[in-house]
Amino acid sequence: MMHLQDYDLSIVLVAVAIFLASIIFLLRPKKASNDKLPPLVEGSFFSIAPIFFSSRAPFFLLECARTYGKIFRLPLVPNGNFVVATDHKLARSILEDTKSEKPALLYQGFNAIFGGGESFFTASGHRWKHVRKSTNQAFAPKQKDRMINIVQQVLNKWINNTLEPKRNENTPLDFAIEMQLVTIGVIGRIGFDHELTQEEVGIIKDNLKVIYVEYMQRAPQNPLKQIPFTKWFFSGIREANRKSQQIRNILRNILEKHRLKTNPDQNTIIHMICNNKDYNSDDERIRDLFAYLVGGFDTTAYSLAWTLLELAKNTKEQEYLQSELLKCATSKDELYNCKALKNVIREGQRLHNTAALGSARQIGKDFSYGDCIIPKGSVVDCPFFVIHRDNDVFEQADEFMPQRWQKSSEDMLRSMLGFSAGKRNCQGQLVANVELMVILAELCSKYKFTVVDEGHVEYYVTLKPVGSLLRVSSV
Ligand code: HEM
After folding, report:
1. What was the pLDDT predicted at 35?
2. Is 1 contained in some domain?
3. Pick the residue with more confidence: 381 or 224?
4. What is the CA 409 to chain-centroid distance, rounded?
5. What is the CA(378)–ligand 1 centre distance, in A?
6. Into how many domains does the chain fold?
7. Measured from the CB, is residue 295 less than 6 Å from ligand 1?
8. pTM above 0.85, yes or no
9. Which pLDDT tens digit goes with each residue over 80-90?
10. Which of 168, 179, 271, 386 gives 86 a disulfide partner, CB atoms 3.0 to 4.6 angstroms apart?
11. Any atom of ligand 1 within 6 Å of the Cβ of 379
12. 121 lines ligand 1 (CB under 6 A)
């Protein structure tokens, strides 16, 4: 007779076998015979997965592209058809193809982050479409002035409460952290018509870090953490789930308060989600609010922090931007549309795209590149970090050179995929662009930044400058 422990173990093993078999089944490509597949990077699942799901991933893929060429495969799935496409034309055509879908297996970590169950960010078909359609008005160009107003208010409050006191004390600031506080405040107001308390901001920022590391780095390397029955044995999973629940509680409160408002702002994401009758429950609504919150703050915060760090490192570029902004300071409209500012924003987005690993898609038809075929059904990752550093498109691609955009080629412009492309592109890009434009214009026209500590790079979900410190002085 089996001991209870043996019995438990055999259930686990059967579950693992079923899980692996489903991966093989789901990711099976329909490969025509005699097709030449892209080169396979040397190594095994066990040597490559720990790199792919680590902070080193963007740099590892850049190194692979410079060694193996613009498309290659990674041994991450049993059938070998996990392809990385770093040629911008190929990546764009994959992302824009209507048959390309988000691969469930790669995106399931987001479901866990948002509290289990599907969110519109990971779903396809009706579950995705009705949300995107019902919220589109919140991101329409006619909202731009409202967005600018809110960003100015949140920024001014932060300048008065934080930046000015630190400048007076000559104390350096960690802009990766500070910009998160600003962008959480902005998404709270723009998206949810809610002024987040300091406590709420602290919970969102600190909890997300723990949740991301668990669900996007640790869990993908451990099949037992993917199985509903076995995952609860792991304290990291239980902790991440508790922290996700705390954020969902905040969002539930915001949702309930919104419903009680007599005159709610109808331009907000929360209002549109509240009134969308296609939802089955408030749990679904809250998962989607979570997705908007996550999509909407650290991507933009780190883009701002990277750009300020590059300007602080490149004094000449900073001084040039300042002098051009001062020339444009006759009105806010002129200031925000300053050409030198646009070039700096674009270059920051190119060099340190925060969505560094880009978008992954399961392709619904065969694609070809040179003499290689990528068979229908393959999972293709398009890492923007690598695409934006293609030396064939950008001279000295690893350098911060905003003035390269003075004369931009069609190829350079088409390479810029930071907000992705196709039907699943970034819905919030207008919000992000307004934040970049207003915050960089206001800060760089009034202050000078010098590097105290460059810090180091980390990647999980987004590319971050960690521990970097800048000193601020008046222009
Ligand atoms: C510089 C800042 C930003 C960058 C670089 C960025 C980048 C991206 C990328 C690459 C995607 C595609 C993801 C994928 O294919 O897996 C995406 C999707 C998305 N982003 Fe952004 N984003 C930024 C800011 C924002 C903001 C401010 C919001 C909202 C307020 C937002 C909301 C979304 C949403 C809702 C989606 C999912 C759209 C869908 O699946 O239909 N993003 N973003």
Report:
1. 64
2. no
3. 381
4. 26
5. 23
6. 1
7. yes
8. yes
9. 689 999 999 99
10. 386
11. no
12. yes
